[in-house]
Task: structure prediction
Amino acid sequence: MSTARSSIALGGPATLDRLPLLLNAVAEVCEAAGADATLRHDLRLAVEEACMNVMRHAYRSGAPGELALEVTREPWQGRPAIRVTLRDRGLPFDPLAVAAPQPAEDAEHLPLGGLGVHLMRQVTDAQAYHYDVATGNHLTLVKFLTRQHGEEK
Amino acid sequence: MNVTISQQDAVTVVAISGSVDSLSADKLTESFVGELNAGRVKLVADFAAVSYTSSAGLRSVLAAVKESRRSGGDLRIAAVQPDVLRVLSLSGFTSIIKMYDGVAAAVSSYGQA
Result:
């Protein structure tokens, strides 16, 4: 019998050593929800990129601030889904407002800035962001558990 | 993630296994830099056992592609698995990096014009 949980909330400092813990929480909820391998892959990728953005850029040098993560199986727009919400109290930053990298014809001109955010958006089905003065940046990433006809992964 | 390096004639095969993520990408970069600094600039990255890469892994690969090409060589990728191929494609890598179905084809590609 599986002991995987369908909802996990974790708080703590925005430090790289916590990345495995955060990604394990995502994997555990995916397992409890019966998510397929591609969904697990995509959500892991999206959450790693989102976490790294906070860990690298949200806080000015000095003591790391907070990065809280909540992952839960919960319907989104009426469809079964896994939802991950990241919250940090760093500088206001809307990753969804970052322009997609422009295609390049050679390696020298391939832009790497914004690549992580681009991947995060491409491999999730829905994203939402808001900033609250009291609680900081809130980023929500959603992956549907079922595909609709004609819908790609 | 583990990296195993072997030599096939003039081509260096860098076989990677596991996940290339923000925690492990530096190790991959060190492997590439070690080969390039030793003058081994014809590289094949064997991705057959790579189950995952994030943008951290892509940065490592791209840096090696650029440096090897500047030195007259290249980094070519073999045996990419479907989920990883999707990430490479979404990132624009599939149009600028030479990719092959298997290591043998990637190695032999260096013998061609």
Notes: The two ends of chain B are 34 Å apart (CA to CA).
